[in-house]
Amino acid sequence: MGWFPAGHFHHGPELEGELVEAGLADVVVHGEEGPAGLALELVDEWGEDVLAAALLLAERLDQPLARELSNHLLAFGTVPEVG
User: Fold this and answer.
1) Which of 7, 18, 20, 41 shows the smallest number of beta carbons within 10 Å?
2) Judging by beta carbons within 10 Å of its beta carbon (0-12, 13-18, 19+), is residue 77 exposed, middle or buried?
């Protein structure tokens, strides 16, 4: 079966460092799924209660250690003005 590769290509601090090294400012790295990502994939039906619980969990676990338990990372940064 052709599964997506397991593991990270980057860890949060590593990705953040690469973006800063590339010249971006105000860099922030988030975990997309967090530690409950796999559990949410196994839920057959998504109701408002499941969505509310997932959002609450994501808000409470918004910290660097929890993002490392996510399968995917998303980074944001800004390009400084030149001149």
Assistant:
1) 7
2) middle
